[in-house]
Amino acid sequence: MSLTFDFVQSQPEPAADRVTLFADVILPLPLPKLYTYRVPFELNDQVVIGGRVIVQFGAKRTLSCIVAAVHETPPKDYQAKYILEFIDETPVVTQPQLKLFRWMADYYLCTLGEVINAALPAALKLNSESRIQLHPVWMNTDEADRYPLSEQEQKVVAALLDGEEGKSMTFTEVGDVLGVASFHKVIKSLMNKDVIFLFEHLADKYSPKVVKKVRLAHHFVAEAALEGLFAQLASKAKQLDVLMRYLQKVPVYQNEHANHNGIEKAYLTSAPHLSPSAVNTLIKNGVLEQFDQIVSRFPLDDATEANMHFQLSEAQQVAHDDILDQFQTKDIVLLHGVTGAGKTEIYIELIRQALDGGGQVLYLLPEIALTAQIVTRLMRVFGSRLGVYHSKFSDNERVEVWNGVLSGRFQVVVGVRSAVFLPFDNLALTIVDEEHESSYKQYDPAPRYNAREVALMMANFQGSKTLLGSATPSVETYYQARAGRYGLVTLTKRYGEAGLPEIELVDTRKARESKTLLNHFTPELMTEMESKLAQKEQVILFQNRRGYAPFINCLDCGWIPKCTNCAVSLSYHKQAHELRCHYCGHHDRMPVQCPACGSRNVKTVGFGTEKIEDDLKVMLPQANVQRMDLDTTRAKNAYQQIISDFEQQTTNVLVGTQMVTKGLDFANVSLVGIINADSIIHYPDFRAHERAFQMFVQVSGRAGRKGKKGKVIIQTADPQQVIFDKVMRNDYLEFYEYEITQRREHGYPPFMRIIRLTVKHMDQVLAERAAILLTGELVERLGREAVLGPEAPYIFRIRNFYLQEITIKLSREHTVLKAAKADILDAINAIRDQKEYKQARFVADVDPM
Hints:
Blueprint: E1 22-26, E2 35-38, E3 52-57, E4 61-71, E5 85-86, H1 95-107, H2 112-119, E6 131-134, H3 136-139, H4 151-161, E7 168-170, H5 171-178, H6 184-192, E8 196-199, E9 210-216, H7 223-232, H8 237-249, E10 263-264, H9 265-269, H10 276-284, E11 288-294, H11 314-327, E12 332-337, H12 343-356, E13 360-364, H13 368-382, E14 386-389, H14 395-407, E15 412-415, E16 427-433, H15 451-462, E17 465-470, H16 475-482, E18 487-491, E19 502-507, H17 508-513, H18 523-534, E20 538-542, E21 551-554, E22 571-573, E23 578-580, E24 587-589, E25 602-605, H19 609-619, E26 625-628, H20 638-647, E27 653-656, E28 669-674, H21 678-681, H22 688-700, E29 711-716, H23 722-728, H24 732-746, E30 753-761, H25 764-782, E31 787-791, E32 797-798, E33 801-810, H26 814-832, E34 841-846
Parallel strand pairs: 12-17, 12-18, 13-15, 13-16, 14-15, 16-17, 19-29, 20-27, 20-28, 26-27, 28-29
Antiparallel strand pairs: 1-2, 1-4, 3-4, 3-5, 6-7, 6-8, 9-10, 9-11, 21-25, 22-23, 23-24, 30-33, 30-34, 31-33, 32-33
Helix pairs in contact: 1-2, 1-15, 11-12, 13-20, 22-23, 25-26
């Protein structure tokens, strides 16, 4: 599969020579090659690399795509169709982005179309099912002030007005109304005139954020007219109060131009001492004018430039200076600082210096929960120069940030993994905080990328510096630092007076034998919780499983409900009172009796975060308990609300999954409880101990901030596990030395590269056969020692597909890796071309986590 292309735009010859140009475009489809279209001659001057164009693909389908190259060579194997329309006059995808996207497609064994599909917000991708709707601004504009419309434009508007309010039409329906095949110019013109707007799906319907505003009618702005108005309203106290409040906010006496922008109507109608009806009366009588204004959805848009400064501690300053020194000779530096060492303050100072030098900064975080807390801190420093980018934002908010980076409005962006796709072209610094986190890895769909690795490559392409930060670096990253490929800076002390927390291991097996275990809580943990709550301090409890119970079963016949689509048991969720599959989302009602034997003796087995929350509300009635997991954070602002409640101490106990382990900073937390440590350690994966160590140390780091000595209680049935000793001593170096020895001995990263191939088929026998044949093809190309498997994974069926996995171990040498990937694609295609396996799916996961 070749995805290479030329990024240098050909220079068209003079129009008199009638040069025919062709454009290679990236379609948002999993196609192995770029597709070539002909540029209409009259649009030769408009074609721009990185801009979007609309093309017809197939018989009826129209799509927007990205221009990757412009040249004069027609395709050899097919007749090039004409580009239908140009959407952009300037690029929405930059040249550095195109280079990065090409690298991602090659490295992660996917197509460039899949990368583009993942990279672009949906509002920048149009197709034949895209819809149009009348713009609220146009609807609320006086007819005399509207742009004049052509006959075709009037037909489209009439069709949208003919029906219920909010009617929408697809592109295909617009073509039917106009009776022409080429209608994209009409749509574009209506968009430019703010008559219509586009949206992709009804579920994601876009409407611009519009606020109602009022201003003083222009003929009252003059001083004499205003004095006459006061006299006119002298007997109308409520209306006079409204006018006075307006003038307090808008000083028209000092600056009559200030009146043009007016103020939000809500500023007047929501004031407790003013009458909303008086406001409406003034509007009705022509004293105030009401108008609509589109405002940014981005919550930081109106932030002021606070430029807050703070003093780094002596240790922070030393680390900061060391980072800058190492950036002189190294492009990548690892900041290894214990939890609570104050890494964020160092980041902020480095960001400030990068901006002073005129560059852009990308600050990556592994979880949306972290952005909610850190953004507040960064706003105080960088104000409206700061953009935020993550999946909980609406698609239209993401487009605003995308365009803000393109225009230079946002010089700093804080985001989760998808922020690596943003159109940076002057990147000076990339910060990857909590670089060890598996949340940086995208699992489905393709590209299955690791944002940390993509960020490193993006920085390499743009000649910028990258700072990786973690209290528990990944083994691979620390290996590169110890080998001298990365710089290494260490922070060993917590910020301020805070010391590392005291860690206590509690044996759940002994508690169970002595019958002192109460609802999965040992007496030690219960006593500490009660003590901390009595002292008005806060508690975090970590359980790495959501839901109420992992499964239910019949105590008489042993029946356990299974998912109909996956080879897993269904988990019980009490709040929804349903059984739910955590892999495909399938759900059933909680049965009253066993469907197998009819017994009513059906009980829950095990416990998740929901059950812990439920139990604590009974056991600690004085506490306000809240839960943070996937189920409670689905809503857009749920993260922020849960964190805000905990920060303001309206919540005493926070129960959560991995979300609570990742870099959150709460000043009043003095106790952290790890409910079931064993489930994290005993997992069939070569990274299991690494993940366990990182998770235990990270969640322990939430205890004891701002001068308080924290405590951590780890509940385990196997306190003799070697890993606990390293966690209790916070000894990362000893853990690393043990782990790197194991990796070297057994041939795992960082010494080898791993690619995991998954074969999927709805027929179990065909899945196994296809996997066996693929293994044979791979062995023939790569050798027996490089190919392990095939074998069925622990969960061998997901969403009705049976799975078989093949693991490939390869040398880290670049040329070997590149050749091996070409061999892997050839082997997959050899099986895919066989008629019997046309329905099989082949998934390549490079560097699986």
